[in-house]
Specification:
The protein is an alpha/beta fold and 343 residues long. The chain has helices at 104-113, 135-150, 152-155, 169-179, 214-220, 228-234, 236-246, 257-265, 268-271, 294-299, 301-314, 333-342; strands at residues 4-8, 14-17, 24-27, 31-35, 47-54, 62-68, 74-80, 116-121, 157-167, 201-205, 278-282, 318-321. The chain is built from 12 helices and 12 strands. The strands form 3 sheets. It has an 8-stranded mixed sheet, sandwiched between helices. Strand 5 (47-54) and strand 6 (62-68) form a beta hairpin. The radius of gyration is 20 Å and the shape is globular. The relative contact order is 0.12.
């Protein structure tokens, strides 16, 4: 398809409240989208593609989107990439992953064929000496969801029909968004932040159950003789990862009142309530063994088990797979998201 430009009008200058500090930062919400050649073969599917659309003040605040050619507003899947908040990017979905187990290009084509738009987003990663923590990428992704809603008319998207998805860190981020009460700030001077953060459903792969890491000891890995403090003492890289999560310089701050409050704000298990959307979760790529590596700590099947058990307790419908359990429905990732968007 030849390149052409679609100019969309939004408010030119508004104030964005940075999650890093209390200062007002000017962000220009005007939109200028240029369609380009898609990064994957669409196999004849009629859809437009735009890349690096800015949704916030920071360089990393960009997303790509595939838009079906449609006479009526389409629904939307948002995908959030993983990488432990230290690596990877939105382009992760433009090729197959996990030795072909995750065929992202085919998933995107399936969504587009069902008149479903697809967005993949970037967010700020942890810095070498992170002083903000996980709330930084989480709130970036929150803003991206709200920004897409704020220009939904121009994108021809039904903003009431959005689902969230992701892998690893992006999976945890999706759950944080899904389980929070609506974070729309109707009194904010930025129209973007007035938009809802609620979703119709959430599908995650190789996720973490919570970002209150103490609950990995008390809940997720309860079957094992697992001690967070012992793990920190044995593996310096784990200590650094935990410090980055909360923007602290020493693990001794982990139990301070301020960090306990921080941990509560990012505890997806505790944020769950019965009015939250249905979840689909799959943690089947690792064996059920003691969590002695970073990969096992972050992606252990028992993260999915804990999410299912909490969802069952709260009363949230769920479809779960985690090595020792397989949902009787057999519903896969794509089918789940299409079902939720059709409800």
């Amino acid at each position: 398809m030849s390149s052409f430009k679609l100019v969309m009008i939004a408010i030119l200058s508004v104030f964005l409240i940075s999650c890093d500090n209390d200062e007002n930062i000017i962000f220009d919400n005007s939109v200028n989208i240029e369609f380009s050649i898609p990064p994957i073969d669409l196999n004849g599917i009629q859809a437009n593609f735009a890349e690096n659309i800015s949704y916030g003040e920071f360089t990393e605040n960009v997303f790509d989107i595939f838009l079906p050619v449609s006479d009526t507003p389409t629904t939307l899947v948002i995908y959030i990439h993983g990488g432990g908040f230290v690596s990877c990017a939105k382009e992760y979905v433009y090729s197959t992953q996990k030795d072909g187990l995750w065929d992202f290009p085919e998933e995107i084509r399936t969504f587009l064929s069902n008149n479903i738009a697809y967005a993949t987003i970037n967010y700020r990663l942890f810095e070498a000496e992170e002083n903000v923590g996980v709330i930084k990428p989480l709130t970036d992704c929150k803003r991206c969801l709200q920004y897409i809603r704020s220009i939904s008319d121009q994108l021809n998207i039904d903003k009431e029909k959005i689902v969230l998805s992701g892998n690893s860190a992006g999976a945890g981020t999706s759950l944080w968004l899904a389980f929070n009460d609506d974070m729309a700030d109707i009194s904010n001077t930025d129209p973007v932040l007035k938009e809802s953060t609620r979703a119709l459903g959430v599908a995650v792969r190789e996720t973490q159950a919570t970002y209150d890491l103490e609950r990995w000891e008390t809940d997720v890995f309860i079957d094992y003789n697992f001690s967070l403090e012992d793990t920190v003492n044995l593996y310096p890289s784990v200590a650094q990862r935990i410090n980055s999560f909360y923007g602290i310089t020493d693990f001794d701050f982990f139990y301070s009142p301020e960090i306990v409050s921080y941990r509560n704000d990012v505890d997806m298990l505790d944020l769950m309530s019965s009015d939250d959307p249905e979840i689909w979760v799959n943690n089947t790529l690792r064996d059920v063994v003691p969590p002695t590596t970073i990969e096992l700590l972050n992606h252990h099947p028992y993260h999915a088990r804990e999410l299912k058990e909490q969802a069952d307790f709260i009363g949230i419908p769920n479809v779960a797979y985690y090595v020792t359990y397989s949902d009787p429905s057999g519903e896969d990732f794509v089918s789940f998201l299409i079902r939720k968007l059709g409800e």
